[in-house]
UniProtKB/TrEMBL annotation:
It is an enzyme of class 2 (transferase). It catalyses: uridine + phosphate = alpha-D-ribose 1-phosphate + uracil. This is Uridine phosphorylase. It comes from Flavobacterium defluvii. GO terms for cellular component: cytosol. The lineage of its organism: Bacteria, Pseudomonadati, Bacteroidota, Flavobacteriia, Flavobacteriales. GO terms for molecular function: purine-nucleoside phosphorylase activity; uridine phosphorylase activity. Residues 29-264 form the Nucleoside phosphorylase domain. It holds the Pfam family PNP_UDP_1.
Length: 290
């Protein structure tokens, strides 16, 4: 039995942070960072059956072209992903009444739709990027036993290439779900490695008033290549989603609309249009999946 202090439930039986019970979520779930983006997706739904919000975690479940889908905001950063993935897994794989893991486990399909800046000049604004790997620079996943799901060869190559200061913790590399990749991919989507930082300013190379540990890290990442895969973009959630999903037996894929190109210094003239295009593309692919 899982202790009450480890799996905290609200008085109505819902999981503590997400404020959800098992019947409230679909097996196909779309993650967004911003709570205001949830309705930018569900506005396309034929109907909405359930909606709730607690803190930054907003969830709506409904029907799109016959497919039941949940949309959930995770907030910013790997720490929030730790909350969301563990509580989602508890909803489907732990009996909340007996507090025991179920014998027959459920695999959720989780797709993140986000915005990001490209690190490569030839990946233009308004394009879409699919993360073949999540490269975690945040150290959150190292709290778990990850050797069976991580790509140590990619990690070693990155550490060597960047002369990584191991005092910051060892980076981790996790692949995407091949199942979801086949459903979503197209010739128009760029693929590569998405680096996940633990913060927005210093951890992503931004300098305001504080000096950072490695001023050349972004340039080193620009030039990194592993088996013909480049680091395409830098954000704050993908590697954590991939890592926890792999450990818990769920399928995960991260898609980003590129609204800025940090190599060329350009920004999308209409970032909302780019995001809407990625939303409708993803919804139609999910609705058509068998």
């Amino acid at each position: 039995m899982i202790k009450e202090s480890e799996l905290i439930l609200n008085p109505d039986g819902s999981v503590y942070h997400l404020n959800l019970r098992p019947e409230h979520i679909a097996n196909d779930i779309i993650f967004v960072g911003d709570q205001n983006r949830v309705e930018k997706i569900t506005q396309f739904f034929d109907s909405i059956e359930y909606s709730t919000q607690k803190r930054e975690f907003k969830t709506q479940t409904g029907i799109y072209k016959g497919k039941r889908i949940s949309v959930m905001s995770t907030g910013i950063g790997p720490d929030n992903i730790d909350i969301v993935l563990n509580e989602l897994d508890a909803l489907v794989n732990i009996d909340l009444k007996t507090r025991k893991p179920k014998e027959n486990l459920t695999s959720l399909n989780i797709i993140r739709i986000g915005t990001s800046g490209s690190l490569q000049e030839d990946i233009p604004v308004d394009s879409f990027v699919m993360s073949k790997f999540g490269l975690g620079l945040d150290n959150m996943l190292r709290s778990y036993l990850i050797d069976e799901v991580s790509n140590t060869a990619l990690e070693d190559a990155f550490v060597t290439h960047t002369n990584w200061d191991i005092r910051k913790g060892r980076p981790y590399a996790i692949p995407c779900s091949e199942k979801l990749e086949k459903i979503i991919e197209s010739d128009k989507i760029f693929k590569g490695i998405t680096a996940t930082a633990g913060g927005f300013y210093g951890p992503q190379g931004r300098v305001l008033r504080l000096n950072i540990q490695d001023e050349e890290l972004n340039n080193k990442m620009d030039n990194f290549d592993f088996n013909e895969s480049r680091i395409t973009n830098l954000e704050m959630e993908t590697a954590a989603i991939y890592g926890l999903s792999s450990l818990l037996g769920h399928n995960a894929l991260s898609l980003n609309a590129i609204i800025a190109n940090r190599a060329s210094g350009t920004f999308s003239e209409d970032p909302y249009k780019a995001v809407d295009a990625l939303i409708t593309y993803t919804l139609n692919k999910l609705a058509g999946a068998k």
